[in-house]
Amino acid sequence: MSSDREFPWDYGRGLEVAIWRTCCVPAISGVLDGTGEFALRGQKRYDDTRILLGELVRTGYDSERGRQALRQINTAHRRFDIANEDMLYVLSTFVFEPVRWIDRWAWRRTSETERLAAFYFFANVGKRMNIREIPTDYATFEELNREYEQAHFRRAASNRRVGNAIIDLYASWYRRPVRDLVSATLPCRLDGPALDALDMRRPPLWARTLNHAGLRGHARAERLAPKLMARLMTRPTARTYPGYPAGYDLADIGPHRTVPPVRQQPAARADSLEDWAP
User: Fold this and answer.
1) Quick one: how far is CA 221 from the chain centroid?
2) Cβ burial 81-97 (10 Å sphere, 16+ → b, else e)
3) Of the candidates 64, 68, 66, 63, the residue with the CA atom closest to the CA atom of residue 55
4) What is the maximum alpha-carbon separation in the chain?
């Protein structure tokens, strides 16, 4: 699929923005802030999400491993009283934020087939998560996504705390002084409404210029040497699980062990949704 072959790096960046934007909604950030997942176990929370999504993409949502990944996801959410409209919005970000990132920053824009594939894939995942009232077409779902943000993005202390924890997490993947540059340029990936909801200042001109130059340069390098860039920019390891890809129990992924384990075998190559970090 396009996330694996055409945009192995860009798809991950879009999913990171998707996670970040959900924290612009106080009802959602309040849950994340209350659990302390990002503040105390941010890397594990990140790795759990990408591993579970990676299982769904690689093996399919109706495979044995896919069904177990869905059970883990549903069990994690079942502990909280989350409104259907909030779940629906989170699902929509996983469809549209990678597409928006790719269309703006990748070496080419997405095709209609790729956009529809993302929509149908996550719509089917949403049905298996018991999310109700999922739109039946791409345009309607995108309109729902934008209308929800207009109605629910607003400042809250929980937004700010979780948003800052996400910056700290993403920046922690680099050594200084690169880490400091990353922290300064990461907010450039968000638009005005998101920055305002997270109570973040608009990045200075130098940061926006550096961000634009870096991403445009990456896109040109992807176009000229796609295989080399994919090899340089993807890593098959998950930082929280030192045994991976030597093996992990899928039932251990997430906040609770709830079902008999299915052993992950060593991976032959990195999967894009299991390798979001640059």
Assistant:
1) 23
2) eeeebbbbbbbbbbbbb
3) 66
4) 52
Domain boundaries, the chain: 2-274
Number of neighbours of residue 152 by Cβ within 10 angstroms: 16
pTM of model > 0.90: no
What is the residue-level pLDDT of the chain in tens, covering all 278 positions?
566 678 888 988 999 999 999 999 999 999 988 887 777 888 888 888 888 888 898 889 999 999 999 998 998 888 888 899 999 999 999 999 999 999 999 999 999 999 999 999 999 999 999 999 999 999 999 999 999 999 999 999 999 999 999 999 988 888 888 899 999 999 999 999 999 999 999 999 999 999 999 999 999 998 888 777 777 776 656 777 766 656 677 777 876 443 343 444 433 333 344 444 44
Interhelix angle 178-185/205-224, nearest 10 degrees:
100
Q: How many other C-beta atoms lie within 10 A of the C-beta of residue 247?
A: 12
Query: Are 9 and 136 a contacting pair, CB within 8 Å?
Result: no
